[in-house]
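Two quick folds needed for the group meeting slides. Do the first one here.
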Amino acid sequence: MDSIMDSDSRAQIQELLDQLHTQIADLPTLLSLLSGPLDAIGLLPPQFRRYNTRPLPSNALTLRKHVPQIQRVLLTHIAPAWSAVLAEPEQHNAHMLLEQYFCPDVFANVLPQAGEVAMLAYATLVSSTVPLTAYAIRLLGRLAVEYPVDRLYEAAFARRDLDKVARGVAWEDCVRNICMVPAKVANAVAGKGEDVPPVLENAPYFNNLSVRCEELIFSLSTKSTADALPSLAYLLGKLVNIGLFPPSPPVARSQPSFFQATLPSIRSRLHSSSAATTTNGYSAFWSSLFLAIPSSLALQSILTSLFATLSTIEPPTDDSPSKRARVRQEAALLDALVGKITPEKQELWEIGTSLMMSRDWHESYARVFVCWLSGGSRSGQVDLKGIVVLDAFLEMVLDTWSSPEHVKHSLISRHRYITSLLLVTVSYFPPSSPYVQGLVSTPNFINGISIYISHLDQSVRRCGMLAAEVIARLCDKKLNFDGWEGDELNKVWCRALRQLVKARDVDAPFDQEEAEEEVAIEEIAAPGAVEAMAHKEDVPRATFVTPTDGYDSDDSMTGYASPPSSRSASPTPSELAEIEKDPTLNVGLKKVSRPVYLAQLGDLLRGGGAKVGPDDPHEADRIEMALNSAEELIRKKKGYGTELDENAVNLAYALLSLQDNFDLEGFSDKRQCALNALVAGAPRKAAPALIQEFFKNQYAVDQRFVALNALALGARELASLPIPPSKVSADRTAFPSKMLPAPLHRKYIAAGRADTDLVPRIMDDISKHALDKQQQSADSVPELVRERRLRIQKPRGVTEVTTSLNPFSDLQKPIQPPSTRFLDVAAEFFVVPLINQFWAFLRDEQAREDRTSQNEGRARYRGAGTGLILNPLVLAQFLRTLAILVNASQNAPEWLAIIAPDSLELAVTLGTRPVSHMETADDDEGDAAEDGQKEASVLTSALELALVVLDGALEIDGGRILGLEHTALVLGLGEWAGKVFASLEKGLKVQGGGGMHEAKLSRAAAGVLLKVDELTSKWRRSMLDTR
């Protein structure tokens, strides 16, 4: 009997499908055919029951078997012919009957069979057997809104006729189908000129999917459904594959982000104080879900996206209570979602800590991560377990912070992030903690400090110095490097970080930021609040009540006469000033007179005959007076007889060898300004003397930098190029009889510092100018235009030269000595001596190294040791100074024949050849680049020198002499620059390339390549014989 009924049902359904395939006569017939199956599954709207003239038995229709067949027939045969007719107004919403097979209406939405029909509709609409027409796209838009992922999850797992495995398979098929919708729709409308519905666009669709996924997680967290974790883990894994967890916040409108869409809702649920039990269950469910994700790569992508979506703090080192509260809130968010991260959770610990250490996060994230790891972000207390976790994390941070690879090659932003991570972690330990005490004595920390201090970049160097000082303070030890005051960005950051680690973000109250935001909102959104505050009653204050009887205990206090003191009264300030001026009481003080002549200045600097011994109490006063008056006196003597030339050499020796033994104020600035004035005033005497002294081994690095700065700034002053202004007023550097008009005295004169900043700043400006300026060719005026000018331009007339009748009239004019131009002295007294002395020095140093190469230990001489000229720090400054001199002497007559080729040869040699055995020795760290052991600073300086030479050659004669007479040198330069640039593009790291040198080296190499290409493209046919 049952088999007969089943066969009848199958026959009825097959007959229905056949009728739908054929041409339907009229609308009532169509409505009758559509009503029967819907009534059998319980989804027929009441207003269409009258059309159900062919009812089907209740058990005749199987949803998973028959509904997809009916849906395909409706999409391929019925919808193309009848959808427009059904949508007409006079049909009274007849189109709803057709759409009920795909997206049941809101009245049927709660029924289990409605959700199953929607799941089947997703599968049918995205299948490849059915064309995705405009009608089908409209149905997908309705499904995306009315049947989101949480409703489909309920439909997939509400079926009790299937076992657990079958329900899981149905859910996975559903997830795959809903994730295919945006791509299917985009492919369907591509090339047709149709617009994708906004709800089905990539970003809105997946953002809405993310929001509903979070809603699903919240609803499941309120139920004890541990079986839901694998299904949700599969959903998150699928979203990872699609790209809903980007590693950085998306900037494109078409890029979706799961956490960017859901974090506002997550924050509101976690911060809700009305249902603490629900919040704890929600948080625990999230933590269990992260641990249930089977793929480590998927978990890594999810955590990366979560970290990237956290709020940042600006500025990162702000220690205000509101910013500290925000840091704690972000850490509490991580604690609530991911849970407490400990080494016991091995996979989560490895992935989380590796993300913190390997990626370049915002600097403020260091505070959030440490607060999260401490385990007290929500409770506000760091227990012993949190201290143990921080100790394990501190060991990892120290390994990264102290590694030579990180110190040498990381950019300044990463240096600050890792340093902040180290110091913030250390600040969470109690003072004098054994963990911190053990940190100080670890070899990694000690070696890291030494590597940081030896770095060439001042910003990177201060990161190590700051870490050493802060950690020493936590261990009750004193360490002070000084030099933290100033407006430089790195010093401001160091002071802010030092202030930040004096307290912990985990101790900040949660409600601090909320209270400040409420105050700000009131002030902005409620203008009437000000008036209400004005009429508000004053807060009661404490008042003193006068006794009614009129008696006050204070009235009984009366003064009393004290006996006269035996001590004399203290002198007043005016009396002290008179005593100080009294010559009879000023015993032992000898006022140093201001020098008038340069010989007197030299005696003050060297001590002269007035020095009675090494403990002379007046030596500091003499040196201070000499420095205070040196620059002014030297500039006054410029062009005034031969006094300056006669004393220039002695003054150069005295100023260069001067030591700051008495910690005088402004010692470095005053000495540098005096040497600058000396080189500018007597270039023929002072410059050769400084060059000769520079290559002697008796001077420290600071003194060598003083000499190089003086040569560079003095040369630019002689060439009338911009330099830092002098600290001595122009009115004080000229005699009254030779005073010029005020505008002529507003020229910049040299005033440098004995540090590494001045010359690099000037060199940066020169390099940028060489790369950015427009190429101006010497033959920019065409020959025809030039010839036309010669024909049309009127010749100058002959004018009569009038002479005075008085033969002695010329004697009335003051005789002014000719001023020295840098073009006249550049080659003979600056550039050529500097290059020749360097070659001689390099020859002697290499010969000395060869003689001791067989020795070991200290018996072996190393020419590139710390403090010597061949050390990268000094050698880079030497090349920059030479580049400045070459740039300033560009118009000298010897430039193309002598200065340019000699300088270019020096740049190529120092950039490609080892200058010491230390560069050819095996490197224990193994981070040598292909171009040898060259430091990034030396490579950058050599390339900048070559860039200056090429730019000048192209500007003067288009590179003709340099390209034709020194062809091999130019081609070798191009090959070297191309190799350096290609290595950097491949990601190869150069020793010492961290910090600011990373971008400078690439810029200099690219600039040289462009200049060489410009030169060779112009003279290639003459440079190379192509026969």
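Then this one, please, same format:
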Amino acid sequence: MSPRYGTGIVSTEFQRIDTTRLKSSVNNALHVANVPRSSPVAIFTVARRTAFVLRSRQSHPSSSPRALPLITATRTNMEHINFQSATTSVNAAATSGIVCACANASANVPPKFNVCAHAPATNVSITLNGASRMVYSITRSVNARAVKRVGARPVPTSTSSALSPASDARARAIAHRLDLDLVVVPNDVTPVVTIHARPTRAVAFATPLSTTPSHRRRAHPRPRRIVLVALVALVDSDSDTNDDDDEDDDDEDDGTNSSGFGSSVTTSTSSTPVKWTTRTRTRTTRTTTRAARGGGGRGGRGRRGRGRRGRRGRRFDPSKGIKMSCTHVGERVLEWRGECALEGARGARITYRYAVVDEHGSVIAWDGETREVSPEATRAARGGVECVDAWTTRAHAEHVFESKGFASVVAPSPTLSQHSDGKTAGKNGQGWEFHEHIVPERAEWHFLASRAGTASAPTRVIKARFEIRAPRVTGDRRVRIRGSCPALGAGDATKSLGLGRRAESDAWWIEFDVDANDAPFEYSYFISSGSGGGDDDEVVHEAHGVRECSCTVNNELVDAAGETYVFKRDGVFEYADAWRGAGMALPVFATRTEQSVGCGDFMDLQHMVDFAAATGMSVVQVLPVNDTCVHGTWWDSYPYSSLSVHALHVMYLRPQLLAGLTQELKDEIDVARVALNLKEIDYEATVKTKLDIARRAYENDASVLERDGFIAYFKENEHWLKPYAVFCVLRDLFGTAEHWRWGVFSEFSDDVLEKVSGETSALRASVRFYYYLQYHLHAQLFAVSEYAKGSGIVLKGDLPVGVDKCSVDTWMHPRLFRMNTSTGAPPDAFDRNGQNWGFPTYNWEHMAEDDYAWWRSRMHHLEQYFSAIRIDHILGFFRIWELPASARTGRMGRFRPSLPITRDELLSRGIWDIDRLTEPFLQWHEMEREFDERTQEIAFRFMIEHDPPRGLWRFRPEFRTEAAIFKATTPRAGIPQEFVDDQLQIRASLMKLFQNRILLIDSENIDAFYPRFGLEETSSYEALDPWMRDNLHDLSNDYYFGRQTNTWRKQARKVLPALLNASNMLVCGEDLGFTPTCVPSVMAELGILGLRIQRMPPVGESAEFGRPHTYSYLTVCSPSCHDTMTTRAWWEEDADRRRRYDEMFGVGGDATCTPEVMREILKQHVSSPSVLAIFPIQDLLALDSEYAKRPALEETINDPTNPKHYWRFRLHVRCEDLLANKAFVKEIQNIIADRAHY
């Protein structure tokens, strides 16, 4: 069958661009083209990156067109201005493989660019004469969205809605030259010429010319195709073919008794081949995005997903798949169809899934689900088997309920049992026994009985199996189906059928027989509150839209002899309104209650859970709670620098609940509670007090370690608890957590554990103290977690991306870390100088050897406390900003993994003086500018003249690292402040000179280089010749925005699924900062929620502030976060910014952030489509004028520009008082009332 194609399945990526540079390029182009300055000029900035070359014949009508400079057009806020006058003809040349079509109109209709389309590599001249009274718009589909008008303007005269013969012929001639299919779409005002690209000439994907090495650059776009990939597993004819009995055999492999497309099957129960037809329908606005950018991911749902493997652990082979053809079904749906005859597959189980591949057969995206055809269907289907599937993604509204840990809290069953305290409970205290087994109903009004003995008796039976996923349906609610065929009640709603469901599954299904004469027929799903389907059952939800069932496009199966099996899988039950929740974010240490000692503790969270429940919220989000006691000072207040990724921090202990407390200790606790009740946290005093009380309580009574509760806890956590306790003892013994300085104990081993913690060890009691401490911390946090679940509140945790170099984990697993490096972030909105966190980067190659077991262990451990998790700096799972261990700032880094600039690339561009680019560019006038009259003193101390003819200097060998410069310029203790300031100024100037370079050398390969971030800002760059600057600028742009995309996409697809499959938590990713273009699409395909902070617009947004009403559903929106100033401080800091914000949103221009202003800002986020709106507690307090009297800057949690920031923020109002303030509670209730809850 000849395939039919719809709009192109293509990929485009956003490209950041300097608007000033773009305007400069345009001016140069106009000058070369000899276009007068007075002529109007237009730049059509398409929504996606497009590279094009313009040629003009204005001044040279008899000669070949002159090439203008390459212009890369990107989404900007620039206004449309005309590129040429009405009398100018502009040709579109395909020298680069890209054609830019330009329409000229009459003088009273301004001409403008329209769009680019891929064309053959020949020059094509397109001229639409100005005499025409209409404007043609050659359009394309961006990411296979519905056909889109680009640049068509109404003509201020009456015109026919049909093209004139001459115009029609001209348009078709253009299309023919471009090798495009032409469709003419009538419009009430202006006819629009619409171009549908054939896949051999896929539309509009261009790589900037001469910026990527030829061996990496793709000269033409990849056509996208969907293929059907299957595994055929033979089942013995005498074996049990019940699907329910084969649910847990995923990991088995039956060797040769299986096949895929393209392989022969040597054994069969019948020699007759099975005729198999599949269809999958996709929306053009979604499918193409996944087709172009999707892939991998969880192959099923939750922890039981099969990924890219089918049943019994066999891997799908796309090279053996069936290439499917495509047709349009309406304006927004594509239907892909494939057909084959499976030789020797009679009685076999077919496991299959869909994949999007390029022209080489490489997988771009996998469908999100693995499907099956049962053995009984392939055995009995004489007329064939047809599968009609909806393309599945995780970017749908019900995805959040596929995370069972989250769903069991926010969407509890209506029939839960009740505790005596009124709190709900179920399996493991997590809400309910999730998804019990339900048997589907069978119709009593079966059509065979109703038609028996009549002339309309059926001549052919269709065996139908319908499936739909409904994760939210629990308790006594049930999915039901009704339809126009007799088997589904012939349109009688009282004769609907209830679907069945397997235990622990969210897929509902039903099987019934259909007379072939009744096809096609319509049907719909709904949810009822009872199982009987009678008049007493309430219809709770109607699925969106009416569906139709027909057997193939051309009814081939219906006309065939014998039974036909039809598997109709309809994706996910779509509700009329998506669930949306609200919540608040606060660090545990920031809470304040009557029982707090120095800082907030785990038990204080119970009050915040009550506050969230009273105000109608669904989520309480906290910062990491891991142990960070590395230095023994307030530096350890940084919650993202983990000493252990499993252990909890002692600062969150409620000492009043310890076993072994004497009256003396209780009195000391009361004294400490009053003494430490400060405005801000005294970290060192708080930790010291709690450790001292806990140690003395342990010495008084350690019998808790002999009880069943601790024994069970120790057995489950021994793999990390014993090494952690031993590490802490050795840290205390040696006085440092730098384990490489511990002599014979510096290398982790079981012998070391035994020597320190064994029965005969003198340190055994000290080791067991840390068991005692962690057990109490676990018991308290677990109790709060259960309390939150029982109250219907999701406790959302935080997963730090890094660990401290001096940590238990680097001691136990040194192969997993690159200890000679540091982790950070490049310059971004948080810090213009970048960030250096000091964590070692990960050795992903070694982590992959055990399928990322270390990460999976972390996720599994956190799941016992949290129902949702925030992954800090999720960009690090795509690529991490890696710095040398000697670095002290975040500028001199490179991305890992990444494709470097090679020496051959530089030489091919005529760049041979590479030392000049890799060394700091130091000249005497540069140093004079920094040091003034002290230049000679500082220069001869830190530098040495290297190249006198060129006047170049170098740093002395002892000062050739940032660490050495920092050490040499560290002020001595006790000197006057003016001398301290002077030393710090010298340090800043030296660092500026040290970083004044263009390329960084790879420490492991001297022929690989990385562009220094922001190299265009350096004087070293400005001193180069223009041609060299242009080449280096192109290479830098390609490194950061071009060549890495596929590398980073593949990296994330390898690592993130391992984390997602390890737990049932809802996963959110902090994707702020310098975000690669591939991040949003990969997060969407994996179902990871993104983060939206209004003052930090997402990728592709050109506005200064984000627009909450435009956020996508699978996001978490917030006006601020712990890494930014509070909204109140941000509002009051900058009057000009405040004015611009008011002009955009109209919230008022008061100099202070009044409760009225804050209310309007919060309402923007409440109205957002985002699934969660999370509000920092400081922003909520700003709603009350009394609470807002505290200076706004005092409420800042973190300053990302300061690597040694003291995390000591604490609420100035007690949690009990917040809950008792009825007016405040009511205010928040009213604001978030618009959030739709289940």
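Slide caption for protein two: Residues 708-734 form the longest helix (27 residues).
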